């Protein structure tokens, strides 16, 4: 038999879409103390796990039935213990349901289309400029018309051959106007979605049609298009002069560092020692990976991307932040679609373009439930709701006209006008959008209310609306119960039963032995020179506090120290470390770039662990023993009956599908 944890892991993995023979779907396969379990569920869990089970004995249907019976016995015990009534269980199950439901409250086709679009754009970068005429979403119609006329006049000039850069400089109302509307290079997710669409859909050398964003009306011109550079990881050494500095020394200091770098090649050490960028200095100058536009520093980005080989570093150069030397750590080309799809999906979910997914999904639900947006209903609403809604002060009166009448129906559920009025009261307190008229705001609230209502209905009835969801949800519900059962009967008992732990330890004492251990003071130093001085001080008996006080000044950490008793295999001890009491040689750690010096105060030979020292391992082993004993007692006192005729049909159906 496989362990409970192994079976639990197998059972909760991937959902299969294999169809179960209809005639067996609801047939009772077995009963336990009179509780029936259908053949359809058994077939699903067997078939979906068939490819991931490695032990051939577990693929045997008779053996698997035994596992399935054990699983049902455990769940039956959990229900008998009322674990499903615990508030913590109900809360976690509700949280999971909300999370799981999100995958079913969306339009997967539109989502896939947006992911594919984002990936294709991620492989490109465009260099563009734009002209903006400002207008806000809630501006009055006359102001919107004025802006529209102005942008169209500019468009006519461009169509007739006017210079784009000149018009951007003289007529654009955006912050980039003084720079001829230039936006530099950018890729996907760097601009608002309508702007991104216009930029990527416009030919190089051409200007776009007029389009609108929340900022106003735009025209964009694309000057260049290139393959994306991907992302890059670099380290840098940076110097800068404070604004009020009497003497400007940043350029001289970076050149001095550059000379040392050419002589020693020790970039990380010099970054820790001399870089003014405190955020990266402690990491040897390493910066988080970035792409085009990621640092808002074109000069820095161009030089970083211009480095060819790992370890290559630039000559000193100046950016708007200060003076730099940049070293290439790694280049990250644009990954495959399969690798990037999950992160792109998450970005889309958090971006305004997700509205396309929501709109498509809501449209499909309106069609599914035959709910239409009614102009007649809108007329009635505008008769009842006053202009006070524009100041978010409209009041709902239960005696209002039509309050008790049906507004629309979702299957068997009626939505009244009163439901909408209450929603308006609640929403207007949180909605600070500017609307040009009462009618515009009422329409927006009405359309959104319909979509919100049908989405809530679909969510509430997901178990009936979607079989895949119901199966996965039931799996998690049962898996969570099983977890609580094991925690109650096995894990907590193993942790809390001190008498049982002692008895188990006494019987298996030989298992719990210390390896050779060292009582050490471990020092990690930024440079070899610092390590040499620390080594000397340790030999002289200088305390840890005095050493750190001497070296770690002005916010710079040159020495890191830790102490304690560790086994000789401790991963921070160098591989070639010579074990002996006293102050060690200096060891260079290539992975971290630190120079290590270790004071071994005492070498402790192998010995027997006490129960307290072995407590963690003892609890783990005792837990496994408890689980083994529990498993062997599961069927005691239970009446288990397998419908052999149904099981025979199940075997035939599984053999056919497998």
UniProtKB/TrEMBL annotation:
<dbReference type="Pfam" id="PF00639">
    <property type="entry name" value="Rotamase"/>
</dbReference>
<keyword id="KW-0697">Rotamase</keyword>
<feature type="domain" description="PpiC">
    <location>
        <begin position="229"/>
        <end position="330"/>
    </location>
</feature>
<dbReference type="Pfam" id="PF13616">
    <property type="entry name" value="Rotamase_3"/>
</dbReference>
<feature type="signal peptide">
    <location>
        <begin position="1"/>
        <end position="21"/>
    </location>
</feature>
<dbReference type="InterPro" id="IPR046357">
    <property type="entry name" value="PPIase_dom_sf"/>
</dbReference>
<dbReference type="InterPro" id="IPR023058">
    <property type="entry name" value="PPIase_PpiC_CS"/>
</dbReference>
<dbReference type="GO" id="GO:0003755">
    <property type="term" value="F:peptidyl-prolyl cis-trans isomerase activity"/>
</dbReference>
<protein>
    <submittedName>
        <fullName>Peptidyl-prolyl cis-trans isomerase SurA</fullName>
    </submittedName>
</protein>
<keyword id="KW-0732">Signal</keyword>
<feature type="domain" description="PpiC">
    <location>
        <begin position="123"/>
        <end position="224"/>
    </location>
</feature>
<dbReference type="InterPro" id="IPR050245">
    <property type="entry name" value="PrsA_foldase"/>
</dbReference>
<dbReference type="InterPro" id="IPR000297">
    <property type="entry name" value="PPIase_PpiC"/>
</dbReference>
<keyword id="KW-0413">Isomerase</keyword>
